[in-house]
Amino acid sequence: MSANIAEMEKRRSAAKLGGGQKRIDAQHAKGKLTARERLDVLLDEGSFEEMDLYVEHDCVDFGMQDQKFPGDGVVTGSGTINGRLVYVFSQDFTVFGGSLSARHAQKICKVMDAALKVGAPVIGLNDSGGARIQEGVASLGGYADVFQRNVLASGVVPQLSLIMGPCAGGAVYSPAMTDFIFMVKDSSYMFVTGPEVVKTVTNEVVTQEELGGAITHSSKTSVSDLALENDIEALLAARDFFDFLPSSNRDDVPERPSADAWDRLEPSLDTIIPPSANQPYDMHEVIRKTVDEGEFFELQPQHGGNIIIGFGRIEGRTIGVVANQPMVLAGVLDINSSRKAARFVRFCDAFNIPIVTFVDVPGFLPGTDQEHNGIIKHGAKLLFAYAEATVPKITVITRKAYGGAYDVMSSKHLRGDLNYAWPTAEIAVMGAKGAVEIIFRGQDADGIAAKTKEYEDRFANPFVAASRGYIDEVIYPHSTRRRIALGLRKLRNKELENPWKKHDNIPL
Ligand code: HXC
């Protein structure tokens, strides 16, 4: 008994040291925390319960039988974040570069299975050189086992990936199939093949940072939803973010007390729309003045800035916000913004999060670049996502709602539950000048001006749409929060089901 206790303590101490003090020092020297230190920041103090600490790899090739580390490069288990259960795995770069062996994969699969069984989110802290090269196909199999679980868990429990080191090969595909990815600036990278391979195959010379750093992936590719300054900031952001998420698709959104009155009026919104239709204003202000305590967790702020997505709360309950941003490209819908918002709408729908949409959109972006890169298919993603969503949908048109973009942005026709318009709303096929230049082509400047005025008088308002019932009510901007709060109360027991199908066929 006492011998076993001594052995247990010995193994526990060994596990805590990962790949050894020298490698821990190297990790710290790069500004990175160790796998265990990260879990200490992520989880409530003392809440972590580890599993599989004694697991070791079974590889005997390349002298691996003499190199064993308890835990085999990944710390797994469960804990809580502000009291709510979460399953976690944290890869240990000090053990074979956090690379994934068959046993390492088995540990990750075990926590994923446990999370699915009880309906709890999974957070993965990724810091891995990919498949454990010494293990060959065994590690590839391990990856596939993880991928399979990522897919089965998708839409059942939220999955969040934090990328906290160089992640290559298989180490990027598992995060890519999770719901959200946060990266750490200057120390995390994601690529299928690293700079060396790129150079060999394509002759391109590129740094890790340029190829797959946090800035690249949160601005250019949108692989990452957020780029944080360092490990601590990323882990604290993950804690805040977690508080918005339901535990599973069977759970309601989390609710927390709010000191912000549900019927707070916001008079400053009555003057936020500039006098000229071409002048921008910041839609963030509208969002922040609407949600509880002005707290808005924005995702992908550096990518597709013409649409804003993120989570807020009304009466303490999570809402997903989608909003056109007039400050960027006049809020137009293009490929990036359509893809960005579509995936977010689908996440909200999968996890019973009501969607509040603020609309100020001049239409789809014209041009060969957009057309040749498939705006038809990408724009259709957002249309499809809104149309299939059955969660409560509340829409507020603040200014422009032109053309197809009017239809797309959670319109009444796509089963919007409550569609409001501010008095400044303009709901039409297109802007007055463009419309007149098409239907009255050939007229002189005076004629065009007169017809433009006539078109504006007729359509630059919310009343034509309201007279058809496409808008439920024209509301004062200052009452927006109150209206949304009332609407969400009403819709809390909403029931709506799509026809039975195996799954849909969203234009991917
Ligand atoms: C085994 C690995 C490893 C791996 C790193 N190490 N990657 N061991 N398998 N895949 C070990 C190193 O030998 C080293 O061990 C320690 O981890 C740290 O690695 P360094 O290279 O010293 O660190 P760094 O300079 O920071 O570079 C990190 C790195 C680089 C960019 C991740 O190590 C790298 O390029 N690794 C290989 C990446 C790769 O090609 N992976 C396979 C992808 S294929 P010591 O003992 O010195 O501490 C794949 C297939 C799945 O994943 C596909 C599914 C779709």
UniProtKB/TrEMBL annotation:
GO terms for biological process: carbon fixation. Residues 1-257 form the CoA carboxyltransferase N-terminal domain. GO terms for cellular component: acetyl-CoA carboxylase complex. Keywords: Transferase. This is Propionyl-CoA carboxylase beta chain. Belongs to the AccD/PCCB family. Pfam families: Carboxyl_trans. Residues 261-498 form the CoA carboxyltransferase C-terminal domain. GO terms for molecular function: acetyl-CoA carboxylase activity; propionyl-CoA carboxylase activity; transferase activity. It comes from the Bacteria. PANTHER family: PROPIONYL-COA CARBOXYLASE BETA CHAIN, PTHR43842:SF4.
